[in-house]
C-alpha cells in the first residue's frame, strides 16, 4: 500500500511538518553558501550557518543586524514556494489541518488557511517582551523593516534596535526559545485542531526528526494510537522508522521531500 493510495482514500488530512520540509523548500539553516552571502561579517568571524546563531549571545546591534536580515529572508520573502505550493495541490479540496514546528509562515503564504495552521513553537511574524511584562505580542514586520533601514552591511549592525512598547525593555521574536515564551496567540489554533481531530484522519508527517520530538513526532504517534482508524505516513530522509505497534497503520517513506512530492520516492 503506497502513501499516495492512502491519500486518495482519505477525506481528512493532518499535515505535521518539521524543519525538513522548509529545508527542502530552500530554507536550510545549514546552508553555508547562503549564510556567507547574507552575513559576510558573521562569516568573517568564523560562523558558517544560521543554526549556529540560535541562542548565541551577541551585542544588541549585531544581534538585530542578524535577525532582521534572517527574518526578512525567511519569513517575509516575496512569492510562493514551489514545494509548499505542490503540497497544497496534493491536499486539494480535502478537509485538512496543519501542525508545524516551523516558524516561517510558509503554509499560510502558500494557500493553507491561517485558521487551520497551528504553530506551537511560535512565528517569526510576531515579537514579544523578553521579560515578559505582558502576555501581548505584536506583528514583527514593522520592527524588522525599521532595523533593516539602518542596517550597515560593513559592520553587520543596525542602529534601530527594537524595544518593548510597554516597558521599554528588550524584545525578541515570539518563538519558543525558553520559559519567557508567550504562546497565547497560537493557542486558539491548537484548540481548533483538537476539536477537528477524529477517527479516519490521515496524518502525513514530513521532515520531523529527533531534535524536538515532543513537538511533532511523538504527538502524532499518540494521535494515531488514540484513533483506531487513523493512519500515519512518515516522510523523512534519515528517520522514517515507525513504531512497531503502529506498523499496520503506518507507512515509512525514506526519501527526500522533493522526491516524494515529485513522485520519485518509494514507501514501505
Number of spatially distinct domains: 2
Topology-level CATH name of the largest domain: Rossmann fold
Q: Could you give me the name of the CATH homologous superfamily of the largest domain?
A: TPP-binding domain
pLDDT under 50 segments (min length 5)? none
DSSP helix fraction: 25-40%
Net shape: globular
| Secondary-structure element series | HEHHHHHEEEEHEHEHEEH
List the strand order in the largest sheet: 3-2-1-7-8-9
> Which second-level CATH architecture of the largest domain applies?
3-Layer(aba) Sandwich
Beginning-to-end CA distance, first to last residue: 8 Å
Structural class estimated from helices and strands: alpha/beta
The averaged pLDDT comes out at 94
CATH domain class name of the largest domain: Alpha Beta
Protein name: Deacetylase sirtuin-type domain-containing protein
Domain Deacetylase sirtuin-type: 1-268
Keywords: Metal-binding, NAD, Transferase, Zinc
Binding site for Zn(2+): 129, 133, 164, 167
In short:
This protein is of the alpha/beta class. The protein is built from ten helices and nine strands.
Key features of this structure:
268 residues, alpha/beta, 10 helices, 16% strand
Question: What does this protein look like?
Answer:
With 268 residues, the protein is an alpha/beta fold. It folds into 2 domains: 3-26 and 82-119 and 183-261, 3-Layer(aba) Sandwich (Rossmann fold); 33-76 and 141-172, no CATH class. 31% of the residues lie in helices and 16% in strands. It is built from 10 helices and 9 strands. It has helices at 3-9, 19-24, 32-38, 40-44, 60-74, 82-91, 141-148, 187-196, 217-226, 257-261; strands spanning 12-17, 95-100, 117-118, 122-129, 138-139, 171-175, 202-206, 231-235, 250-253. Strands 3-2-1-7-8-9 form a 6-stranded parallel sheet, sandwiched between helices. A 3-stranded antiparallel sheet has the order 5-4-6, with helices on one face. A hairpin with an 8-residue loop joins strand 4 (122-129) and strand 5 (138-139). Helix 5 crosses helix 7. The longest helix is centred in the N-terminal third of the chain and has 15 residues, at 60-74. The chain is globular and about 55 Å long. The protein starts with a helix and ends in a 7-residue tail after the last helix.
Amino acid at each position: 500500500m503506497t502513501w499516495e493510495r492512502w491519500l486518495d482514500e482519505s477525506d481528512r488530512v493532518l499535515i505535521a511538518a518539521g524543519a525538513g520540509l522548509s529545508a527542502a523548500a530552500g530554507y536550510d539553516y545549514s546552508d553555508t553558501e547562503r549564510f556567507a552571502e547574507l552575513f559576510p561579517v558573521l562569516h568573517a568571524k568564523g560562523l558558517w550557518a544560521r543554526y549556529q546563531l540560535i541562542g548565541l549571545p551577541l551585542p544588541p546591534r549585531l544581534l538585530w543586524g542578524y535577525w532582521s536580515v534572517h527574518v526578512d529572508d525567511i519569513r517575509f520573502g516575496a512569492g510562493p514556494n514551489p514545494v509548499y505550493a505542490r503540497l497544497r495541490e496534493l491536499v486539494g479540496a480535502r478537509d485538512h489541518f496543519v501542525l508545524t514546528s516551523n516558524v516561517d509562515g510558509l503554509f499560510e503564504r502558500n494557500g493553507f488557511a491561517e485558521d487551520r495552521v497551528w504553530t506551537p513553537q511560535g512565528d517569526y511574524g510576531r515579537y514579544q517582551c523578553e521579560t515578559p511584562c505582558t502576555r501581548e505580542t505584536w506583528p514583527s514586520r514593522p520592527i524588522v523593516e525599521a532595523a533593516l533601514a539602518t542596517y550597515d552591511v560593513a559592520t553587520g549592525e543596525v542602529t534601530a534596535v527594537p524595544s518593548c512598547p510597554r516597558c521599554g525593555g528588550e524584545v525578541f521574536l515570539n518563538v519558543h526559545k525558553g520559559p519567557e515564551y508567550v504562546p497565547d496567540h497560537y493557542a486558539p489554533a491548537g484548540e481548533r485542531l483538537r476539536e477537528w481531530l477524529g477517527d479516519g484522519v490521515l496524518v502525513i508527517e514530513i521532515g520531523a526528526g529527533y531534535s524536538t520530538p515532543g513537538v511533532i513526532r511523538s504527538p502524532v504517534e499518540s494521535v494515531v494510537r488514540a484513533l483506531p482508524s487513523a493512519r500515519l505516513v512518515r516522510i523523512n530522509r534519515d528517520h522514517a522508522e515507525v513504531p512497531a505497534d503502529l506498523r499496520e497503520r503506518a507507512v515509512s517513506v525514506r526519501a527526500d521531500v522533493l522526491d516524494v512530492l515529485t513522485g520519485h520516492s518509494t514507501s514501505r
